[in-house]
Specification:
single chain; alpha+beta; Nucleoside Triphosphate Pyrophosphohydrolase; three-stranded antiparallel β-sheet; about 15% helix
């Protein structure tokens, strides 16, 4: 079993558009979990809050400025080589034009379509939470863009 002191702290953005769809991104070849879909995000640096890390990561990876709306349930996941604590945040786009800087593809999916893609295992509990909260509606009622 992994030592919890070695747990990697990461964040991801559950970005919802006006149609109630969520942005999914494909991990590139050569990276851990290559070929699997995920909610975009990354590691939390020592000098930043989870929200600051998410804002930085989504700017770096997707050229998007986002507004963090609310946290979702954190996920602790044990991969073969590491353990992560993934903190997801529901958010929406404030500005920017989506550019794939760290992924090979992206798709907007409704919760009903989540099962169409092979997802990174740590994202599966987040998908389930979105499905249970959404019930066909957005997580926060509407998105102002």
């Amino acid at each position: 079993m992994q030592n919890l002191a070695a747990m990697l702290e990461v964040v991801c953005g559950v970005i919802e558009n006006e149609a109630g769809e969520f942005l999914s991104c494909l991990r590139p070849p050569g990276k851990h979990l290559a070929g699997l879909w995920e909610f975009p995000g990354g590691k939390i640096d020592a000098d930043e809050s989870p929200e600051q890390a998410l804002i930085r990561e989504l700017d770096e990876e997707l050229a998007l400025e986002i507004q963090v709306v609310k946290p979702l349930r954190p996920v602790i996941w044990h991969y073969e080589s590491l353990t992560i604590r993934l903190t997801p945040f529901h958010c929406h786009i404030v500005s920017g034009h989506l550019q794939l800087r760290a992924h090979t593809a992206c798709r907007w999916l409704s919760p009903d379509d989540f099962g169409d893609l092979p997802w990174a295992a740590a994202d599966l509990p987040i998908l389930a939470e979105i499905r249970s909260r959404a019930g066909g509606a957005s997580l926060h009622g509407h998105v102002e863009m």
